[in-house]
Specification:
single chain; 110 residues; alpha+beta
Length: 110
């Protein structure tokens, strides 16, 4: 016999985003919309750093770094470990880091 007709995508399988998911996605893109946060996350993509190291490497004020890290920590995009009195920050979401790195690659190839 003949070939079966291709099935069209079943529109009834479309699932609207729930409010919590939509909020988290919007907050994540908000986090990635600020150049300083992008710079911090990009730095943390390689290895963990203390607040002082981040401030020094990115030529930022320590207070600026602390403020941005607090924002990123609240979204669970970074985490920290304590060693004595020093906090060492690292990224905490591989999915978001992949999106960030892919977007950086995209921007560099234009």
């Amino acid at each position: 016999m003949g070939e079966e007709p291709k099935k069209e995508k079943d529109a009834s399988k479309y699932e609207e985003l729930d409010k919590e998911t939509l909020f988290i996605v919007a907050q994540t893109f908000k986090a990635l919309s600020e150049p300083t946060r992008i710079r911090i996350l990009h730095l943390l993509s390689d290895q963990e750093h203390s607040v002082n190291e981040i401030a020094e490497k990115l030529s930022l004020l320590q207070t600026t770094v602390s403020h941005q890290l607090r924002f990123l920590k609240n979204l669970r995009l970074v985490k920290y470990r304590r060693a004595g009195t020093t906090l060492y920050y690292s990224h905490d979401d591989e999915h978001v880091m992949n999106v960030l790195e892919q977007t950086i690659d995209h921007a560099r190839h234009h």
